[in-house]
């Protein structure tokens, strides 16, 4: 018998509570030496850590990219922009991305540019993240919403208003962006991470003022699931991998080492501690 380690969900946070590392624990278990017909024994190298839960040559051997840029987050960013963003090359559109330094947001802004947006502005929660968005990921500007001057900064960085908003966070941040959107603009409703630890329906209800702005400006606000586009996943993977290999799509990852740290990695991700995709490195062998 072989000995393996496995991560187990130990408890749930409960209503209106945040997940903590102690919700998980790692235990040892026995694995039979032999395998039955139709079974296969594999070794885990990387684990993905998400709010939800291929050929190595496609990513030049970077296997972890299949958990991020060339995996579900990448496909979510790609189909969100292409199917719900109404990007029109040459139309001088401005895109704003909240949660812009996360796994999906960091890709969505770059894809918006590749698809034809003339200006891309990110919103994140630290000066370090804002600097990386501009210096490494090609965003035109970035706003640290924690500095308290978001309304002013967004107006400064989006002088012609906002045409496309890739919404990953919801809440007060999104209310500010929605107040500065143009007539006939579009909201890509990807996530509402600021609301995930609250006992509210999805998508969370908007304030009467924000609802009025959507109605008066004829702003579309469409939610979507990446699984709706399953028939396009193969083509999407090929497109994303091509952009990565060509250097057009930059990839950032936050790597936590050790299966025993999966709970801490999940907790950090939910609090915005990651830049790019949060993954857990289980084994380097």
From TrEMBL:
GO molecular function: 15-oxoprostaglandin 13-reductase [NAD(P)+] activity
Top class in the EC scheme: oxidoreductase
InterPro entries for the chain: ADH-like_C, GroES-like_sf, MDR_fam, NAD(P)-bd_dom_sf
Alcohol dehydrogenase-like C-terminal domain segment(s): 105-197
Gene Ontology biological process terms from the UniProt entry: prostaglandin metabolic process
EC number: 1.3.1.48
KW Oxidoreductase (keyword) present: yes
Record's protein name: 15-oxoprostaglandin 13-reductase
Lineage: Eukaryota, Metazoa, Chordata, Craniata, Vertebrata
